[in-house]
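I am writing to request your help with a piece of structural work I have in hand. Here, with my thanks, is the record as I have it:
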Amino acid sequence: MRLSSQFESYCFLENVREKWKKGRKKYHLLNKIYRALLEEENLNKDTQLIRSDYVLDRLRRKRMLLVLDNVDDQEQLDFLIDRHLFGPGSRIIITTRDVQLLNNLADNTYKVEGLNFDEALELFHFHASKRSSLTRDPCTNLSRRAVNCAAGNPLALKVLGSHFGNKNKEKWERATAAIEGICLDVSDIRELHLSPFVFEKMDNLRLLKIFYSKVTKKRKVCFDEDLQTLPDNLKYLHWEEYPLKSLPTNFTAENLVELCMPHSQLEKLWSGVQCLENLKKIDLSYSKRLIEIPDLSRARKLETIYLEECESLCQVPTYFENLDQLITLFLVGCSSLSEFPQVPKNLRCLVLCRTAITRVPPSIECLSYLEILCLRYCTRLESLPNISTPKRLKAIELEGTVFEKDLPPWIDDVMQQHQDTALQEYFNPFRREWEANNFSSLQSSIESERTFSCFLGKAHIMVYWDNFGRGHEFGLDS
């Protein structure tokens, strides 16, 4: 340890969490600390000895360094640390994934960033090359794919390197092909450079989720070239801040159930017509460069479309009126949208706040299932049509929208209803369900199969292998 030379004695207690869980006696860990700090290897833990004035005096006179690695419980800190036993200038360093444990205890806290690509590749290569010469060339595509998956997590790199190190190239390829799900939180990663072919061999990948659990100012995932492939078996694609202008040209989206790519750099998803018979939800919110919506005319099961703050989007395709299952359309903040969209008769919620629409057509009367109509801050909207009250309309929002003419009678009819309650009843459960993204059901099904699954998170890897180690599991709890 580089710091150890600055102290009279030191103790490094590795992986406290695992040792604590494995049933090691608490006094065994405490004994190890005192043996190291007192520099007496033959010392046995004896309460009376440790509490003797002689021992306490020796400890208090020494400048000591104690490092407790991977602490996860307050009980561990309470039992292993007695700050009164440390002499002037001593230091205690605690590593933990739960920063709350350090409240009211630590003088300073530091956040450890993930490794950059070169550092991660070196660490992976170190653990892999112990067992095999397969990865001694650090530029191999296989090594790079594994490092990309680990996303700078040292423990993940150690596990993957150690496991792959005793596999030949064919088994590496099989393992890659077996992955069914990836969940990756990139909040704490400095930068992640992905190969254009990172998903090339993942033919069975059904779930891909790249997300930010914390607000960050910098986009973390980047490509040096356009992404070349995405698996055609994908059912759930959730990629926040997707950095490219479009999806790969050869991607077939016929198996997609949910497509969620908020805050992306997308200008368009793809060209031409895709068979989207399974697609139910699409979210491209805050994709400020999005200029066109792909042809969704074959997405006959589509229920929800989120296009909030897509400020470059100028029009909604006319075929939207043929999406019979569509019940919710969010176009909030689509400031370039000037025409009222053509929508299906079964639509229940239409949100057009802060758009540039100038008129609401009389045909809105035919939307017999419409319950919520939001027109807040539509500053260019001149008037509303004089029609009969839509049968099921429960709430209309007009805050910030000023009309030159008097409002038609049907607006008063709706306003007299309990529209605040209607809005709350509609939006709250919908928002909760959408924010959950419905990924949990697929994740549970994949985990229950216990074969060929890989979920990568901030500090979390679960890998289930078959054929070459059936039922063997690596778990790194977050």
